[in-house]
Specification:
Helices cover about 65% and strands about 0% of the residues. The protein has helices at about 5-20, 25-30, 35-40, 45-65, 75-90, 95-105, 115-135, 150-165, 175-190, 195-205. The longest helix has 21 residues, at about 45-65.
Length: about 220
């Protein structure tokens, strides 16, 4: 009897062998000795099936890292790094499929349909760790900008994914370096900086009348 996992496995084997999606669900189902109904009981289309594969990778990575004893003690930065490392480690086992999927994505700025589920899971995860970081004071709560932190992390994720696709270093060591450097720079921007102190000082002066016309030396 066809299961979600058996259909995924059969689909991945098909597209990697043929280089294209099956021409129809009927042909795919017949080839793998199942009925069309068996397929549609689990997926509404081949695109939905591919989307599910990517979404499940993210869910698996999150489940693994959140199950670690050290997880509660991690900072937001460490939690993000842990997710990135875990996700791309899992992706190694599906590299051929990942390359196939990404090569098929048309160029553009909108999120490809195949990544919609992955992005939703990623953003929910990111919002959770970022909110904890904001509440603890680890991250700077900037009006308007702090709401966009999760978007910055998604941009970083997409960058690393494209970097990984083209990485030919042993064990993808360059990707690990890209993750470390990229996320550290990103979180440096999220944390308090001298600019934040300058803004706070400016707000203090405005509130307390410190920006009134200064006294001239001649009047002292």
């Amino acid at each position: 009897m066809a299961t979600t996992e058996s259909i995924k496995k059969a689909y991945i084997d098909y597209v990697l062998s043929e280089g294209i999606q099956p021409k129809s669900v009927y042909i795919f189902a017949k080839k793998h000795k199942m009925t069309e109904a068996d397929f549609y009981n689990h997926f509404g289309s081949f695109d939905a099936l591919e989307q599910s594969i990517w979404t499940d990778l993210a869910k698996t990575a999150i489940g693994e890292i959140e199950g670690q004893d050290v997880w509660p003690g991690y900072s937001a930065r460490e939690k993000a790094l842990s997710f990135f490392y875990s996700f791309f480690e899992l992706l190694k086992g599906s590299r051929s499929f990942a390359v196939y999927t990404i090569k098929r994505i048309p160029k553009g700025f909108s999120t490809p349909r195949v990544f919609e589920g992955l992005k939703e899971v990623f953003e929910n995860f990111s919002s959770g760790i970022l909110n904890i970081g904001l509440e603890s004071g680890e991250l700077s709560d900037r009006k308007f900008f702090s709401k966009r932190y999760k978007d910055a992390l998604w941009v970083q994720f997409v960058f690393v994914l494209n970097f990984w696709i083209n990485d030919d270093s042993a064990s993808f060591e360059k990707t690990d370096e890209a993750i470390e450097k990229g996320l550290n720079v990103t979180f440096d921007l999220f944390e308090r900086s001298p600019i934040d102190n300058l803004f706070e000082y400016g707000k203090f002066l405005v509130k307390n009348g410190g920006l009134k016309e200064p006294i001239g030396f001649s009047s002292l």
